[in-house]
Amino acid sequence: MISIALDGPAGAGKSTVAKNAAKELGFIYVDTGALYRSVGLYFSRNGIGTELNCDIEEILKEINIDLKFINSEQRVFLNGEDVSEAIRTPQASMMASAVSAKPAVRAFLLEMQRKLARENNVLMDGRDIGTVVLPNATLKFFVTASVKERADRRYKELAEKGMDVSYEDVYNDIETRDYNDSHREIAPLKPAEDSIMFDTTGNTLEESVASLLKEIKERIN
Ligand code: DC
To answer: Whose CA is nearest to atom 18 of ligand 1?
Structure first.
């Protein structure tokens, strides 16, 4: 099986680029952020805030998460409910960032991610795929873009979905999450030693997809 790790900060364009590249390669695209978001959603639905004043391990026992690939599109199910849209709100983003700093949560989601890579050719998108989840991945990329560019993209995406958010909130949210994700003790966001840096600043989606595919095809053929 071929596994390609794609790590990098929020909004670097990883998901759109990876989704398109995976289709072209005939791989499944695994969005691991959706797993953390689903856990976060469950916690917030149970009245728990980002400070996570609760017995995390006990609550994890109540959670069952499933990924299904329908027409090669990933859908995420939380205790049987399709939450693929519900996990996309700014509040769910902040909760995802909070729960993802907890070792118990990371351990809870680890095997599911490894199993997907054992059984499929995958392009897996996350923060610690190359460093922790798939240290032996066939290829590893670290995808970045400037904060401003990432905020512009995320704002546009949310506005297109009709969500009522301010640009300032989106910008601050990205900065806060960058900080949290790269300063947490466990599995912080950082490039694996053997990862290839891939900067999407100033590129159109098509340019990024073409250039990622080129990088991949040069190395796996
Ligand atoms: O990629 P995303 O924005 O959907 O991720 C949501 C949060 O989940 C993000 O703040 C960091 C966390 N995350 C993580 O810690 N490890 C991953 N492999 C994927 C996401």
So the answer is: 126
- Domains in the chain, number: 1
The packing angle between helices 90-100 and 33-45, to 10°, is 100
| Nearest protein CA to atom 15 of ligand 1, as residue | 100
Whether residue 44 contacts residue 83, with contact meaning beta carbons closer than 8 Å, is answered with no
Q: Is the pTM of this model over 0.85?
A: yes
Q: How far is the CA of 30 from the centre of ligand 1 (A)?
A: 12
Model confidence pLDDT, tens digit, residues 166-213: 999 999 999 998 898 889 888 888 899 999 999 999 999 899 999 999
Q: Measured from the CB, is residue 36 less than 6 Å from ligand 1?
A: yes
Give the residue numbers spanning the domain of 126. 3-220
Per-residue confidence at 102, pLDDT binned at 50, 70, 90?
A: very high
Q: What is the pLDDT of residues 70-84, one digit of tens each?
A: 877 899 999 999 999
Cα distances (angstroms) measured from residue 140 to each of 116, 211, 219? 17, 15, 11
What's the CA-to-centroid distance between 53 and ligand 1, angstroms?
21
Q: How far apart are CA 68 and CA 187, in angstroms?
A: 25
Report whether residue 184 contacts ligand 1, using a CB cutoff of 6 Å.
no
- The CATH number of the domain where 182 resides is what? 3.40.50.300
